[in-house]
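Q: What would this chain look like folded?
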Amino acid sequence: MHSLLLRTLPLTLLASLTLAAHAEPVGEVDTVFKLIGPDHKIVVDAYDDPAVRGVTCYVSRAKTGGIKGAVGLAEDKAEASIACRQTGPIAFSKPLAQQEEVMNERISLLFKKLRVVRMVDKARNTLVYLTYSDRVIEGSPQNSVTAVPVDRATPIPLR
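A: My prediction, written as structure tokens:
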């Protein structure tokens, strides 16, 4: 059992690093100075849709600094904003589900994830992206939505 764990641990770590590499940092701004540890900040990351070439989503969110933030124990705010844009010719690698999670990122040690879900508005030939945290805040999750219209000459393939 111990030797199996030692053999699979490097693969597990490599897989988690590969999944984390989907976020490409774009920039950040400091919002609160912290004497010890990193400052609180707002970060902006770019995520390319894995099933739709030519679409990139930009997600901004708060990142907690201080000592807890430095060691990964801080709980980031459950608020985010999203803007998805056509960044090249749109092409589909496979037919899309009507609704599918395209990204998730842990924003607290145990309980909270930031998620991006792609929905297809077939009537308008538009891709709709929703970002939210799976932790409910005062009865309603914080969320943000954006849409990328696709030229009618390129119908969105659905499963």
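Residues 1-21 have pLDDT under 50 and may be disordered.
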